[in-house]
Every structure is written in structure tokens, then in C-alpha cells.
Amino acid sequence: NAGVTQTPKFQVLKTGQSMTLQCAQDMNHEYMSWYRQDPGMGLRLIHYSVGAGITDQGEVPNGYNVSRSTTEDFPLRLLSAAPSQTSVYFCASSIGQGAETEAFFGQGTRLTVV
Amino acid sequence: GESVGLHLPTLSVQEGDNSIINCAYSNSASDYFIWYKQESGKGPQFIIDIRSNMDKRQGQRVTVLLNKTVKHLSLQIAATQPGDSAVYFCAEMANTGFQKLVFGTGTRLLVSP
């Protein structure tokens, strides 16, 4: 049982490049989400999904796309990377989305856009 | 190491001491609160949670206290160990689901042997 697996762990992009951050979970969780973590700020929600085929925007969705074709995978796509997207990205999953359902986080992807 | 901790308040304690980490939350409608621990290079890890109908909840070596009057949350760690060194942050939710979970910025706990 690997939990939540994110790849890659580190990535450097040039401005304007696109890439996909991968997230997979093997716990059969319906709810998955992507956050970014920046210095001096709390985790901020980018996009989330309540189940396969269903996604929605979070607090800071601009510049990112997501899809949820399977329960296991929830990739995050950067369409045209900008220096403002330099951050640490975390994927999380949980059985549900309400209180008292524990969220499990991946190890994070550190992205630098130059 | 992680750059997210560069501007965090820091609490330094000796091994064996009790630690108290504080959090002020913003939304008076929040009714569910979570404390997370984040070690360097890792994702956040759930520690303990509390609903707003409680003012105290205890786990293994950890206690969360909630004061709704002043919108204040604290995490107490008993007999702090070097393995407790990490960034701790609180999160609040107004019973609308994780998409409305609001995270605090965190406090770095440093435990000296």
C-alpha cells in the first residue's frame, strides 16, 4: 500500500514550457486535490475532484488544468509555466471530503520556473 | 531543504519539555479543526482534529484545545522528542468539505537533545 505517490520530486522548467505533475493513490479514495505551498503562506487549493470524471476549481486555479479519468490518478497540468508558479505542490486524497475523513498527502513536487 | 519554512515563527524546546503551539483562526463559522505535522521534504501528516462542540481532545502525547470565544487553537505535545521537530500548522473548515479547508502558515518546532 503505497498511499499517495507524486512524481517527479523535483522539476525545473523554463518560462512557457508545459508539464504534468503526476499523482496516484492506491487507497480507492474518491476525493483528491492539489495544493501549492509557498513561503509564508498556508497551503492553497488549486483544483479538486470528488470522483472520477468530476473536477472543480479551488482557490488558485489559474494556469493549471486537471482531469480525473480514473479513481487512482489525478494529474495536474501546467499549460505555460510562469515564475509565479515556482512552488512546492502537494497532492492529497481522502475517502470523502467532510470532517473527520483523514486526508493523506504525497511527498510533494518542488517546481522551479526560470 | 524546504523553502516553505523560511519565514515561520519558531519554538525551540529541550527534549522532554512540553511544547505548546498556538494558532489563531479567522472564521467564526468554522466548526472543524485539524493539526498537521510537516517534516522536512515530506507532505503534511494528520495529527489530531477537533469539532467545535468540544474544547479539548487528547491523543497520544498530544492535546488540542479550542477556545471559540477568542478563535484560538493550541496543540500541546507532552514530553517532546527530537522526532517531533517539524513544522506544525492548523487548518479550519466550516463543514462545507475539504475544498473550503483553510490552512494556517505554521510554526517550526525545534527540539534539542
Brief overview, please?
Chain A is mostly beta strands.
**Termini separation of chain A (Å)?**
36 Å
Overall, the morphology of chain A is globular
Helix content of chain A: under 10%
State Rg of chain B: 14 Å
Order of helices and strands of chain A: EEEEEEEEEEE
Per DSSP E runs of 2 or more residues, the count of β-strands of chain A stands at 11
The fraction of residues in strands of chain A falls at over 45%
Number of E-type strands of chain B: 10
Low-confidence stretches of chain B: 1-5
> What is the residue-mean pLDDT of chain B, rounded to a whole number?
90
Query: Given the helix and strand composition of chain B, which structural class is it?
Result: mainly beta
Number of helices of chain A: 0
| Average of pLDDT of chain A | 94
End-to-end distance of chain B, in Å? 21 Å
* Secondary structural class of chain A: mainly beta
Provide structural commentary.
The complex is a heterodimer of chains A (114) and B (113). Chain A has 114 residues and is mainly β. Chain A has strands spanning 4-7, 10-13, 19-25, 31-37, 44-51, 54-57, 64-66, 76-78, 87-94, 104-105, 109-113. In chain A, the strands form 2 sheets. In chain A, strands 2, 4, 5, 6, 9, 10 and 11 form a 7-stranded mixed β-sheet that branches. Chain A has a 4-stranded antiparallel β-sheet with strand order 1-3-8-7, with no helix packed on it. In chain A, a hairpin with a 6-residue loop joins strand 4 and strand 5 (44-51). The radius of gyration of chain A is 13 Å and the shape is globular. With 113 residues, chain B is mostly beta strands. In chain B, 0% of the residues lie in helices and 50% in strands. Chain B has strands spanning 10-14, 19-24, 32-38, 45-51, 56-58, 62-67, 72-77, 86-93, 102-103, 107-112. In chain B, the strands form 2 sheets. In chain B, strands 1, 3, 4, 8, 9 and 10 form a 6-stranded mixed β-sheet that branches. Chain B has a 4-stranded antiparallel β-sheet with strand order 2-7-6-5, with no helix packed on it. In chain B, strand 3 and strand 4 (45-51) form a beta hairpin. The two termini of chain B are 21 Å apart. The A-B interface holds A 4, 31, 33, 37-45, 48, 56, 58, 88, 90, 92, 94, 97-108 and B 2-8, 31-32, 41-46, 49, 51, 89, 91, 93, 95, 97-99, 101-106.
